[in-house]
Every structure is written in structure tokens, then in C-alpha cells.
């Protein structure tokens, strides 16, 4: 297959600096890597944090962000046996893991001590061609829409893993904080598909999306209630069995801790910069609830999350934008104007 020598990409050389839409060389895969011709990439709030540089762990610079890209394999390293030219493949947050540390051998590679992160420590998916480790790259069904599956590789996967960590049973109450956002919109759908009763928490302009399209059982507009803790306790007859915080609001997170049920679980996913989870020790001990956190999913979680999508149980709530206009997407993100997920077309 004859490939071009250059491609379009969005790159920044310093945090909060210009987002440069420019021609760069196409990378070449190492023996254990594949080269993916990306067609679409979802835009995650983590990408905005990488651009701003406001998380404790430093990024590489210059940096091509992005970590939920979907496309077609156009190059295969000499040691790769699980992909071939023409396969559909995806790049995830975890670009590569060592497979030999304590966490990898336990099947918890999200905590790998030597991981490479797409769009953070290695170049990501805001480009037309990207290399990915063949072990961590996602296998995508060739019959799916690449624009719709792209956000599943991070937003969907992250939402699914968080719900697994909540350890809920069918019929139990699950509150999704930030239900109308990129992660929350998947969280509501996965929670429904897993048999939970779902309360979506968000602002009123997202009520129709959360109730009518995502099919949450109840919706709470946090801008209209005087006491969200009391609202949840009354709706659930005692508090939610599971609370998943996908928002980037420290206030929302800490209110969620207050309305979890005794023996329930709060899962922290959204990471507002410089924030803290606060739990009153007396209440924590008396209620005996679990306070845990979740980042992204493992390879097995990826297989499971994609299976829900392949069977039509999960649909991506997407708006397609141009890669060249990524800066405008970031501005909308900061103003909390985005419903669902923005997916950029890498060829525009």
C-alpha cells in the first residue's frame, strides 16, 4: 500500500499556546506496533487538561493530543500477529503497557508503572495517521460506523468501567452526575443496559437529552433544586446504591458523597483540577459506604464495552466537527455547552 509522506495534525508547542493545524511526517510503526489511518477522533475533557497542562503529571511537548481515534490499519510491525492491513482499529488512552509489572500481571494495566498515554506522553489521535501498540490497540468490528464508535474507546469504556466498580445489582439506584456530558451520556446508557435504575443529574438544558434520548428514569436539575441531597434520598427511599461522578465540579462530587446509601459506592471519575473529595469520617463509618475511583478500562473492559455498542445497546450522542477547528471545541467545552460527545473529522 502506497502511503503519503505527510499528514495533517493539530499540535501545540506550549500549554495554552496556539493550536497549530499543520503538515507533519507520517510516523512509522515499530516491530510491535500498527499504523492506523484515523478517520475520526472523539474529543475528551482530558484533552483539554493536557492542553492546559493543569494536571500534576506533565505531558510531552510539543504534543498532538487526542486518545479516542478510530480508523483502518495501514501498516503492521514485523512482530504483530493480531492485526492485518485493512482491519478496523482504535487508539485508546492506554497506548502501551509493560505487561510485566505487578498491576499488569493482575490484569489491572490501568495502573501500569510504565504506561504510555495517547495524547499525553505519546502523540495522540488529533492527526490522520497514528502508531499504537498492537497489544493495547482496540479491535473494532468492521460493520460499525467509525465516527460513532470512536468515543466508545474512551468515554464509553471509562463509563462502563466506573459502573463495574460500583458493584451494583440489577434494580438498584444509580446516580449519574454530569449525565448530559460526554462521559455521562454513555454512563446513563450503560447503566440502563446493565439493569440499574438511573437518576441523571445535570443542568436543565440537558433534561430532554437525558430523559428522552438516553432514557434515564429520573432527572434532577442541580440549578433548580434547593436540596439535591434530600431529593435523591426521597427518590431512592434512602439514598443511591451507586453514585458515579463524571462532572468536573468539586461541589457536585462532594454532594454526591452525601446522598449515597449506607453500604453504597461512590465512584470518582471526573477530575476537576486542584480539587478534593471530602467525606465526614463519622458519617462515613456509620454509613459504611465505599469511596473509590476509576480511570479508564483494561483490554477486557474494552472488549465488553464494545460488545454493548456492537449489539446496539449503546449509541453515541455525537456532533461532528472539523479537526482544524479543535480550538472552538475546547472553548465550547470550557463554557459547558456540549451535549454528548464531539467527534472531529481528521480530514477537515
TrEMBL record:
GO biological process terms, semicolon-separated: amino acid catabolic process to alcohol via Ehrlich pathway
Enzyme Commission number(s) of this protein: 1.1.1.1
GO cellular component: a single term: cytoplasm
InterPro entries tied to this protein: ADH-like_C (IPR013149), ADH-like_N (IPR013154), ADH_Zn_CS (IPR002328), ER (IPR020843), GroES-like_sf (IPR011032), NAD(P)-bd_dom_sf (IPR036291)
Domain (Enoyl reductase (ER)) ranges: 17-344
The reaction(s) this protein catalyses: a primary alcohol + NAD(+) = an aldehyde + NADH + H(+)
Keywords: Metal-binding, NAD, Oxidoreductase, Zinc
Any one GO molecular-function label of the UniProt entry: alcohol dehydrogenase (NAD+) activity
NAD is among the record's keywords: yes
Listed Pfam families: ADH_N (PF08240), ADH_zinc_N (PF00107)
Signal peptide interval: none
Entry-linked CDD domains: CAD3
Cofactor(s) listed: Zn(2+)
Record-stated family: Belongs to the zinc-containing alcohol dehydrogenase family.
UniProt protein name: alcohol dehydrogenase
Amino acid at each position: 500500500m502506497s502511503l503519503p509522506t505527510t499528514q495533517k495534525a493539530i499540535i501545540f508547542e506550549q500549554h495554552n499556546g496556539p493550536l497549530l493545524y499543520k503538515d507533519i511526517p507520517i510516523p512509522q510503526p515499530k516491530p510491535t506496533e500498527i499504523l492506523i489511518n484515523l478517520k475520526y477522533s472523539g474529543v475528551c475533557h482530558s484533552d483539554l487538561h493536557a492542553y492546559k497542562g493543569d494536571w500534576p503529571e506533565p505531558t510531552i511537548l510539543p504534543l498532538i493530543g487526542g486518545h479516542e481515534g478510530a480508523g483502518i490499519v495501514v501498516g503492521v510491525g514485523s512482530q504483530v500477529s493480531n492485526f492485518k492491513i485493512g482491519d478496523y482499529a482504535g487508539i485508546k488512552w492506554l497506548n502501551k503497557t509493560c505487561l510485566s509489572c505487578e498491576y499488569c500481571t493482575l490484569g489491572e494495566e490501568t495502573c501500569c508503572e510504565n504506561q504510555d498515554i495517547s495524547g499525553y506522553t505519546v502523540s495522540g489521535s488529533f492527526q490522520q495517521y497514528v502508531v499504537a501498540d498492537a497489544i493495547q490497540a482496540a479491535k473494532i468490528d468492521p460493520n460499525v460506523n467509525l465516527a460513532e464508535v470512536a468515543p466508545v474507546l474512551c468515554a464509553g469504556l471509562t463509563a462502563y468501567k466506573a459502573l463495574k466498580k460500583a458493584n451494583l445489582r440489577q434494580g438498584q439506584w444509580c446516580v449519574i452526575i454530569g449525565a448530559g456530558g460526554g462521559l455521562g451520556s454513555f454512563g446513563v446508557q450503560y447503566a440502563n443496559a446493565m439493569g440499574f435504575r438511573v437518576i441523571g443529574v445535570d443542568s436543565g438544558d440537558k433534561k430532554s437529552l437525558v430523559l428522552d434520548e438516553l432514557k434515564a428514569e429520573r432527572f434532577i436539575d442541580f440549578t433548580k433544586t434547593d436540596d439535591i441531597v434530600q431529593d435523591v434520598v426521597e427518590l431512592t427511599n434512602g439514598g443511591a446504591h451507586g453514585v458515579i461522578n463524571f462532572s468536573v465540579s468539586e461541589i457536585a462530587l462532594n454532594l454526591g458523597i452525601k446522598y449515597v446509601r449506607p453500604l453504597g459506592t461512590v465512584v470518582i471519575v471526573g477530575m476537576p483540577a486542584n480539587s478534593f473529595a471530602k467525606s465526614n469520617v463519622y458519617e462515613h463509618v456509620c454509613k459504611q459506604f465505599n469511596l473509590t475511583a476509576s480511570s479508564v478500562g483494561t483490554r477486557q473492559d474494552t472488549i465488553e464495552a464494545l460488545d454493548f455498542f456492537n449489539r446496539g445497546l449503546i449509541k453515541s450522542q455525537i456532533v461532528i466537527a472539523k479537526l482544524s477547528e479543535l480550538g472552538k471545541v475546547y472553548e465550547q467545552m470550557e463554557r459547558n455547552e456540549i451535549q454528548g460527545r464531539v467527534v472531529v473529522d481528521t480530514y477537515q
